[in-house]
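Pair request: fold both.
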Amino acid sequence: MNSFMDWFWLMVWWFAFVMYLVVLFQIIADLFRDRELNGWLKALWMIFLIILPFLAGAIYLIARGRGMGQRQAEQMSASRAETDAYIRNVAASTPAASPTAQVSEAKALLDSGAIDEREFAVLKAKALA
């Protein structure tokens, strides 16, 4: 690096390279996310991306770019629905312990020697509050 401009152009090229990799990985992820495209067409797109990556990436974005966004949005909404269903399932199957059960658990800990009287009093007060 002999000058500021050399450094500046190096950063510009690094930025362009990283952005190219991001777009390439988005295209590859979209290829495998698409359930309508058969395996042979996916393989042809991958070969095309390996042999002529810039041209294949540009063609893919022009030809299938709108569908990329729709497929990603569908995947995100499906993922959110699965997460919400899981949270509802776990929340429904874990009943809140009654104060009596909490005090008895604390008493069992006290009897086993895991906690002392002061900690037992704090747990008991918290359970009854």
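--- second member of the pair ---
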Amino acid sequence: MNVILFGATGMVGQAALRECLLDPEVNLVLSIVRNPTGQHNAKLRELVHSDLFDYSAIQTDLTGFEACFFCIGVTSAGMSETQYTRVTHDLTLAAATTLAKLNPSMTFIYVSGSGTDSTQRGRTMWARVKGKTENDILKLPFKAAYMFRPGFIQPLHGIVSKTTSYRIFYSAIKPFLPLMRKISPTQIGTTEQIGRAMLLVVKHGFPRPVLESKDINTLRSPSEK
């Protein structure tokens, strides 16, 4: 299986990359990056591409893939709805529309977030924009598309958020994680769980196009059930 990955430097992207490189069924990971990361692995190929709204110059590099993990995400803090729509909806759809044309047999996984508003009519701006992004991806002619809505994600295996405020938050909350897991065991996941869940959904599908936190954190392969 060949996989395209967007957002490999983010926390979820790091998780997806790690699990792909460990999975014997994954032959190639093409990571689309704005700047080289310096990572090296026999399965990994980094493609530096600065304009994530236009893929016309690299279309020949984007064919022959069975899966795409789109893990790019930004906080809406300090942004207007127009600004957030551009870097969330428009940027994502630019990639997804291109890939749907080039790889009709592809499974596309978009990492959204818990609380996303599929109706697009709620009061929370970011949730509406994420909802529109999900809905528009689901209209594209992929073999399959799945929306991942994780809640709290505990970073493991040296994975860290590149957002300073998130790193401070994770450090502060770490002592309370055992209690939080005891209270809400299906609502708190790990980077390992979400990375593995992405691969499982590509390989085996899922009954619904939207996976909430509980679905992601309890997903098991058929052999584990």
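Observation on the second member. The first strand starts at residue 2 and ends at 6.
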